[in-house]
Amino acid sequence: MGGTAAAASTTLTLDDAAVSQLPDNGPLVSGTFKPTAVNSGIVKDNFPAPGPGTGAALTFAAPFGTGTLASQFNGTNPNGTWSLYVIDDALGPASGIGAIIAGGWSINITTAVAAAPTATVVTSSLNPSFTTTPGNTVTFTATVTSAGNPVTQGTVTFMEGAATLQAATAVNGSGQATFTTSALSEGSHLIRAVYDGTASFATSNSTLTQVVNNHTIVIGSTFCNPGPIAIPDGALTGGPATPYPSNIFVSGLAGAVSKVTLTLNNLTETRPDDLDMLLVGPNGARFVVMSDVGGQTAIGNVTLTLDDAAASLLPDATPLTAGTFRPTAVNSGSGAVFPSPAPGAPYSFAAPFGAATFATSFGGSNPNGTWSLYVVDDATGGGAGSIASACLSFVTTSDTPTTTTVTSSQNPSFTSVPSNTVTLTAHVTRTSDNGNVTLGTVTFKEGATVLAGPLTLNGSGTASFTTVVA
Ligand SMILES: [Ca+2]
Ligand SMILES: [Ca+2]
Ligand SMILES: [Ca+2]
Hints:
Layout: E1 12-14, E2 31-33, H1 69-73, E3 119-124, E4 129-130, E5 138-146, E6 149-150, E7 155-160, E8 163-170, E9 176-181, E10 187-195, E11 204-213, E12 217-219, E13 222-225, E14 229-231, E15 239-240, E16 246-250, E17 257-269, E18 275-280, E19 286-291, E20 299-306, E21 323-325, E22 328-329, E23 348-349, H2 358-362, E24 369-377, E25 385-396, E26 402-408, E27 421-430, E28 441-446, E29 449-456, E30 462-468
Bound molecules: calcium ion (3 copies).
One calcium ion binds next to loops.
């Protein structure tokens, strides 16, 4: 190229990205041009030894060929020796004095840098947390680093399973992005923070299990988790309910456990035989309170209280009915499998499979702490079930036995004046020494109907209410 016009002090840059090729004819002028191989004449370009020779060994730039710098070198390791072979392939002009590249030559290499590996760590501001105030606001913080340094470009997406909890959020100057929520439901949530990556930094992610509980409702010495337990149609390996476990937090009780009962409110289940329930106390005892009872008859809204002092066990094969029963573990078929995070076997089983009771499992232990109820459906088929809420009631060794007597101011009385006004007075005393009990309340009932109360006991250990029959 460049014709036969002499070129002097010309600096040429060859770049695939240039606008045009060098001129085939006409003088060379300084500038940036595409690589250009016209390869004209009788003798094709030949680069003798130690050059590569000619022919198939050579790749030509346009217009003779289609090679480019990129097609020849991109993707290769740039490190090593780069050699430039320059020849003059024709004699003349007679007065020619040859040529010189006086300023030498250089190459400018841009390398594609692989995205640097990153690490993401996600933390929670409060774990476990609660469904309602206080303690229901949680901030998850994702920290992204590369080689120990904060990554300050790119975004983090917060997810639970396939669901996006918070869309891509830019990391800050400390390499952190946060997600704050007060809306998590009861149960375990696998929170995943995904660093979405950039051209310079590779993606990474990490997870944490956020546990969310209901606050426990306290009524005297009864402690309830007011939330429902949803029971899926399970599998032989144990289909865990949601939440799993359902937790009840007991606090403020003095003394050791002398009695505990468990009430399952409004149990609904298509095939009760599939249910297994494990109660774990603060003392770590693992008591299977109910398994494989009630046959295959669907039940709806049956409230069961499990009490060591009840007269009978739950039925193995006949329908469950509301009432108070001893804890009952038939433990037939596949037995009782409680997947993680439930503690592993061995478990203690209620009768008839075992001989454990609430008393043998928890008696004498500190009632304060976390009580966890793990419910599973252990067989496919039958469908889903539910428990509306669950409660534990305690008697402790520090509870003083009491005696309550009730007296009437007018008995018999009349339905109209005179003598139709009646005052009923309850007197509560310690059973041991008949001393007045001045703490607590009294509720007056007729059957299940509350007539008055709860009324606070006075300094004489009494509470009264007056009714006028009109
Ligand atoms: Ca089932
Ligand atoms: Ca059964
Ligand atoms: Ca079972």
